[in-house]
Amino acid sequence: xxxxxxxxxxxxxxxxxxxxxxxxxxxxxxxxxxxxxxxxxxxxxxxxxxxxxxxxxxxxxxxxxxxxxxxxxxxxxxxxxxxxxxxxxxxxxxxxxxxxxxxxxxxxxxxxxxxxxxxxxxxxxxxxxxxxxxxxxxxxxxxxxxxxxxxxxxxxxxxxxxxxxxxxxxxxxxxxxxxxxxxxxxxxxxxxxxxxxxxxxxxxxxxxxxxxx
Length: 213
Ligand SMILES: C[S@@+](CC[C@H](N)C(=O)[O-])C[C@H]1O[C@@H](n2cnc3c(N)ncnc32)[C@H](O)[C@@H]1O
What we know:
The chain contains 6 helices and 9 strands; from the N terminus they run ββαββαββαβαααββ. The chain has 213 residues and is an alpha/beta fold. It has a single domain (2-212), classed as Vaccinia Virus protein VP39 (Rossmann fold, 3-Layer(aba) Sandwich), CATH 3.40.50. The protein has a 7-stranded mixed sheet with strand order 5-4-3-6-7-9-8, sandwiched between helices. It has a two-stranded antiparallel sheet with strand order 1-2. Strand 6 (107-113), helix 3 (122-132) and strand 7 (133-144) form a beta-alpha-beta unit. Bound molecules: S-adenosylmethionine. S-adenosylmethionine is lined by residues 6, 20, 24, 49-52, 55, 69-72, 75, 96-98, 113-115, 118-120. This is Ubiquinone/menaquinone biosynthesis C-methylase UbiE.
């Protein structure tokens, strides 16, 4: 099935839904400090790109609304169940982040974690985020990025790029997302780079931050 360019893989779609359910708590443990900072004080209604199975529901207050842009249908059952458990109202849209179909300047806050690595065109997604954010609205992100050129981690990211992308439905460890965020035309972009110490070495170079419309 195709949702504005996103192709759901019959094998890897369900595999990734199961993978992120099983390893979600472990990934969360590694990134929690950064998420607590950038996802603090979210408004009543939040738009999330690529919600997956609901890793970020915990950063919303019970009773608030999540507009989840998630084109990958195998994620939906777990996402619905997680939202119900957390008391978050779920407005699930089977759309891609490149074309959310949300009105112009309709959102106070858009969030994403580990999604800009996977979308087909991150620059197009950032333009879409700017379109839907109200002036002064925030895009808050936690993403993994390419390591420093010439570093051993960068070499490993290059070496493993094909099996990694195959397994994780197009995910790339080689994106300069900080550069794209700075070039996207936001009024201000605050970015903190950091390194995790997980066994998933190619995924350890990350950024977290807030871009202001
Ligand atoms: C690595 S998972 C991360 C899920 C979740 N945000 C988390 O932190 O656990 C990437 C997610 O992005 C979604 N995704 C992939 N391409 C997308 C696109 N073009 N638009 C929106 N979501 C997309 C996938 O379906 C998947 O749920």
